[in-house]
Amino acid sequence: MKYAYLLIDFFTISVPFIYSFHPKLNFYKTWKAFFPAVFLTGMMFLIWDVYFTSLGVWGFNPDYLIGLKVGNMPIEEILFFFCIPYACVFTFHCLDLFIKKPIPLRIEKILTPLLILICVLMSILYRNHIYPAATFLLLAAVLTLSRYILKIGWLPKFYIIYTVLLFPFLIVNGLLTGTGLDAPIVWYDNNQIIGFRILSIPIEDVFYGMALILVNLLIYKHLLSRRSAAQ
What we know:
The chain is mainly alpha-helical. Helix content is 67%, strand content 6%. It has one domain. The protein has helices at 4-19, 31-55, 75-98, 105-125, 130-149, 155-176, 204-230; strands spanning 58-60, 69-70, 73-74, 186-188, 197-198, 201-202. Strands 1-4 form a two-stranded antiparallel sheet. A two-stranded antiparallel ribbon has the order 2-3. Helix 2 (31-55) runs antiparallel to helix 7 (204-230), helix 3 (75-98) packs antiparallel against helix 6 and helix 4 packs antiparallel against helix 5. The chain is globular. The model has no long low-confidence stretch (mean pLDDT 94).
């Protein structure tokens, strides 16, 4: 029981780490871009995590933790911001090599502003619930940055790959929020969330995850392009 969260972190990253050295993938060759990206993103989201934990928006069940903390953060939660992005960026790296036909650009041109609009409206609608309000506003800002300021060209692929990632997301986040367990590893204050769940997962986590992975990818891809230009 004490190792439950730690084991989830471990099994999330184990297969992607092993296959990072596959000669057709060579993800390890991008580590010089990945590690700064995951560190910078992790620091931003950990500040968010520490604050929301202090407010009691969510918390951690000590029955599933080894007991080692940094401040008010269990070490497992800190590792989460390395293990999950590693698995997701690795998946993006792999699928990016094989997906030749992303969603058409004309669809992305409709989808992105529609997502931004929905996020802004949801943030306003749930302005008295701090987690959805902050999450939807963050995702709207990241999508706006990606599409209209940085004008990245890989958003169509990102939408496809993030949809694929939702399947392992349901397993990992489902376990963390209590699916199949006697109690959740990570609990949420029902007064601070919308209340709609997928299995045991608050719906906000889907959008939080999108923002987390997109920020990781923005920094990662930028550093990769800088390294390529310097060579």
